[in-house]
Write a structure and sequence with these properties.
Blueprint (H helix, E strand, L loop, with lengths): L1 E14 L3 E8 L2 E7 L18 E7 L8 E9 L2 H5 L1 H16 L7 H16 L6 H12 L20 E4 L4 E3 L9 E3 L1 H12 L4 H11 L3 H19 L4 H8 L5
Helix pairs in contact: 2-8, 4-7, 5-7
Bound molecules: zinc ion.
Length: 252
């Protein structure tokens, strides 16, 4: 039986002498499949299996416990500009690595559509450093780990002015509940974090905030720091691409 799925190519590696093992991110979750003969015969999959390509994958189920076979693939979208722009490429590598390492429980089609429109937006628009915290906060949200940014995690008090942040506790704490480890956050930082969590792939809005933050570097640094800290704490796996991302000043 052959079934078809929209899919983002996350990675591929050699399998034996002639086949490729391809990792796909789909609306149904992540799927590993085998592209028979793809190492040798390029005709069938000419450049289709490059990472970050969106394809229509035609898969054939095999016996239980074995990877499905990728019978055919049609190109849906190819992020062309990303391949010519080193920084964009690094950003997508980061996104790809996270998707590859994370386990989405109860993955919904929304995650897939979000990633698809995000990659399209990154490809089509000017590179913004804010894509990084935006992506991190969105992934946390999909995993059910959105930081609490309104009520004190400890006492439930609805904070209006003095925000402190505790990564370990999972969000803001009030003045009374703060400890030496909690970090003071300006209300502007809180507002931007809330905004990033709330918005969808709105390039214009992100662009506006990025502009605004050009003159407020301290605020920007904090937004990046809090987002990355929280992300790393909850994802708890090493991210190789994060180092490159921060080196090319996309880390804020
Ligand atoms: Zn409190």
């Amino acid at each position: 039986m052959i079934f078809s799925l929209d899919a983002l190519v996350l990675s591929k590696e050699k399998l034996g002498e002639i086949d490729l093992l391809v990792e796909l991110f789909t609306p149904k979750g992540k799927i590993f499949c085998v592209a028979k003969g793809a190492q040798k015969s390029y005709k069938r999959f000419v450049n289709l299996l490059e990472e970050f390509n969106f394809i229509k994958a035609y898969l054939r189920k095999t016996s239980k416990g074995k990877f499905p076979i990728l019978e055919k693939a049609d190109l849906i979208f190819l992020p062309e500009k990303v391949r010519e722009d080193y920084k964009k490429y690094i950003l997508l590598s980061f996104i790809g690595e996270v998707l590859s390492k994370i386990s989405f429980v109860g993955l919904k089609i929304e995650y897939f559509l979000f990633i698809k429109s995000l990659i399209k937006a990154v490809d089509a628009n000017k590179l913004l450093t804010l894509w990084k915290p935006f992506f991190e906060l969105k992934i946390l949200k999909f995993c059910g780990w959105t930081p609490e940014l309104y009520k004190c995690i400890k006492c439930g008090y609805f904070i209006r002015k003095m925000f402190y942040f505790s990564v370990e506790e999972g969000g803001v704490v009030c003045y009374k509940c703060r400890t030496i480890k909690s970090e003071y956050l300006e209300i502007k930082v809180i507002e931007i974090l809330r905004d990033l969590i709330r918005m969808s792939n709105e390039f214009e809005r992100l662009y506006k905030i990025e502009k605004e933050l050009e003159k407020r570097l301290l605020i920007k640094e904090k937004v990046f720091k809090i987002s990355e800290k929280f992300f790393k704490f909850f994802l708890s796996f090493e991210l190789n691409s994060l180092k490159f991302l921060n080196e090319c000043s996309l880390g804020g």
